[in-house]
Amino acid sequence: MSVRTSAPPWLETQRRGPQSPRLTRCGTELIAEFGPAAVTMRDVAQRAGVGKGTVFRCVGSRAGLMLALLDHSEQQLQSAVNAGPPPLGPGDPVERLVAFGRAKLDLIAELGDILAA
């Protein structure tokens, strides 16, 4: 069994692309408006003002787009845990654990459609 020591290729590409923040924002907006099943790469490209090829170069595929959006949300949660204000950020360990559990459940509820896509 091999252990992956680096990020998957779709994530490395997504992080490197200069359009990534805009694509993440536009993908998130479109999913909030129409749901993940209705969002296409063309929709994201059009909203972001880039060519469809740019979206494919940044995220690789529609699945890569969904994974990039999930990764972005997870990074925001991690930042809040690492450096955010209490109770989620540094503070009482029990309060942090409870706050983390609630934040994770909220994230799953918010992103459930993307997880299913």
Give a verbal description of the structure:
The chain has 117 residues and is mainly α. The protein has one domain: Tetracycline Repressor, domain 2, CATH 1.10.357. Helix content is 73%, strand content 0%. The two termini are 28 Å apart.
List keywords for this structure.
single chain, 117 residues, mainly alpha, Tetracycline Repressor, domain 2, 0% strand, elongated
Rg over CA atoms, rounded to whole Å, is 16 Å
The CATH homologous superfamily is termed: Tetracycline Repressor, domain 2
End-to-end separation in angstroms reads 28 Å
- Please state the second-level CATH architecture: Orthogonal Bundle
CATH class: Mainly Alpha
Q: How helical, in percent, are the residues? A: over 70%
Task: Indicate the mean pLDDT.
Answer: 84
Q: Outline the biggest β-sheet.
A: none
List the uncertain runs.
none
Class by alpha and beta content: mainly alpha
Number of domains: 1
Order of helices and strands: HHHHHH
Helical stretch tally = 6
Beta-strand percentage range: under 5%
Q: How are the secondary structure elements laid out?
A:
Layout: H1 9-16, H2 20-34, H3 41-48, H4 52-59, H5 62-83, H6 93-116
Task: Describe what is shown at a glance.
The protein has 117 residues and is mostly helical. Helix content is 73%, strand content 0%. The chain has a single domain (9-116), classed as Tetracycline Repressor, domain 2 (Orthogonal Bundle).
